[in-house]
Structure formats: C-alpha cells, structure tokens
Amino acid sequence: MYSWTPTNEERIKVASLTCPEPPQVRNILRGLGSKSLISIDSYSNMAAYTDEWVTGPSDTKFFTRTQAPAEIKGAVVFVHGFIEHLGRYDFVREALVSKGFAVLFYDQRGFGQTALDKARRSVGSAYGKNTRAEMLDDVQFMLNHAREKFKTKNLFLYGHSMGGAIVLQYCCVGNDDLNVKCDLRGVVATSPLLRQAVSAPAWQLVMGHMAQNLTPWMSVPAKVNAADLCHDDSVGKAYLADPLVIQQGTLRGVDTMLRGGAETAEKHYLHWPESLPVFLFHGTEDKVTSAKATHKFHDDIKAKDKHLQMIEGGFHELHNEPEFKVKLLEDITAWFLAHLSQQSETTAAPPEASTSAAPEEAAASKL
C-alpha cells in the first residue's frame, strides 16, 4: 500500500488542480508517478469546478460546488458531516472526477457558507439551525438538481458521518419520490453517525429533547476532538483553524441529528429497498461514531447487494487517513464504476461544466 504526505507547498500547488491546465500540477503528478491517485491523463479530462448558490427547499440558499469530466459516466451527490463544510473534501472531489464522475457537493443547511456567508445566505439561516426532516428534503432536492444538471441515469449518493447517516435514513424513509429513488445506482456511507462511539447519558438526551421544544435554536457546545479525526496531525490543526468550523450546534439540530441516527438503526433499516446497493466503511478505532452500529446496520438491512469494509485501526475520517485514503477512494470509485447502468452510455458534460455485485461479507483492511 502506498501513501503520499505532501508538503505545505505541494498542498498549495495541488489545490490548483481546480484551475485549467496549470503546468505546476502536471509537474507534481509526473513526480509522484504511481503514488498519485489522479493521473496526468485523467487530470487533462477534468474541468474547473464551479461554485454556485442554489435556492432549495423553504427558499434556503445553498452554497454548492460542482465539477464534471469531459465525458460523464455518472454523477455523485456528496453529503458532508456535522459542523463542517464541502471545502474539507477537495481530495474526494478530485478523485471522483478523475474517474469520470460529475459531482455535486453542498454546504448543508446550518453549516459552512450556507449558514455563515452573511452577504449571500438566506434570511433566517444560522449556524446549526436545521432539523433532520429538512435535511432529508435537501437530499431529495440535490438529487433532482444533479440529475437535471448532469443528464445521467447513473446517480449515486455518498455521505460521511452525520451525512452518512442522513443518506442511509433518506433511502429508508426519505421523500416518497420513487422515480428519484429508483434512479439511484448505489449508496456509500463512511463512518455514519447512527450512534455515537460513546453515547451521551440518557438523562442528558431526555433533557435536551425537552429543552429543544422550548428554545429550539439555542446554541449549545458540540466539540469534536481534532485528534480523533485521523492519524494526520495537520488535518486536526487545519480543522481547529478553519473559520467555517464552529464547534457548536443548536438544541433542536443536535437532538434531531442523534434521534435520526438512532431511529435509522433501530427501525428505519427495515425499509431499506432490497434492490438498492450499499457500501459501508468504518474504522475500528473510530472515537466519534459507532463502528458496531454500522456493522449491525449492514447485517440488519435486506439489501441484495451490500458490502461492509471495516478498516483496522482507522479513525473517523477515513478519507484523511494517510495510510488508507488513496485506497479508500480507489475502492469507492471502483464500486461506483461496477454499478453503472449497463443500458446507459457515457454522456458529454453539459456546456456549463466543462455489474458485478459487491460481496455481502464484511472485509477488513489494515492501515
């Protein structure tokens, strides 16, 4: 297994992958050779990303980032986690696009620029101000938006942490637009927040639920230990210094997040569509979300095509783990490619954007 830990200078240069034809990026890729997930040829097939504000449910304005290759094999809608934003997933976005997938990332309501950009956000938007029901509707909207934008029948959902639990819950009990649901070719969830690794005391959860009925948007501390994210210290330092990461939520936002995950694990799993493929990933040493809950969810759902990969020694953010992140994205993109519709053909990107079943057994990979 290989890994690459870039210097700060290299990080800055690789960030320019989003710019058309920068010579310095080509030089980095040539120097990395086989150690780079993104080849020179695949980079040449990548267009610059586009940042755009899109009005969604309840007239909420969402900050979005889309990117597409010259020829689109499929499209992926990505849903990020709690108290973070789409800008933390450049590596994931570039890896997906390099393999032929158009992508739609968005800052969820209550987070990122959707909540913090005072000049562009919706009236009433605030950090942590959201409910699980609203966020499920947002997933529905973004799927429709991606399908219309990229004109593809190969649509995938991919979520991490809170976002991972949201995409799983959506597939069980989300909006009853079966046309969109049946168009989904597959779902990936990494470290889904079905349950906390160490659950808060029951009395605290009960008190929080009662309080959110009185003061729903009262801010409450919601700290995540940066050292628990991954084995790369620079990721934790960047997380703590990130102006779009505020370690707080609201009473209602936190309450519906925790209840939504627990209800998905306890009862909603019964409604998972049998024909909808799913691939779950979780680190065995995750101190944020429960690996056992993910394992149980995999075992409980009746999907005909389901796959679980437990990453031995992995922390919470597997996409940032130095010894596994490249392999993780290789596995995910390979799984997406294996689940493309056999009837659909590769399509050209819109002007504005420049079947083998996975095994059911749980697989283990070592860091």
UniProtKB/TrEMBL annotation:
Residues 343-367 are annotated as: Disordered. Residues 71-323 form the Serine aminopeptidase S33 domain. Residues 344-367 have a biased composition (Low complexity). Signal peptide: none annotated. Pfam families: Hydrolase_4. This is Serine aminopeptidase S33 domain-containing protein.
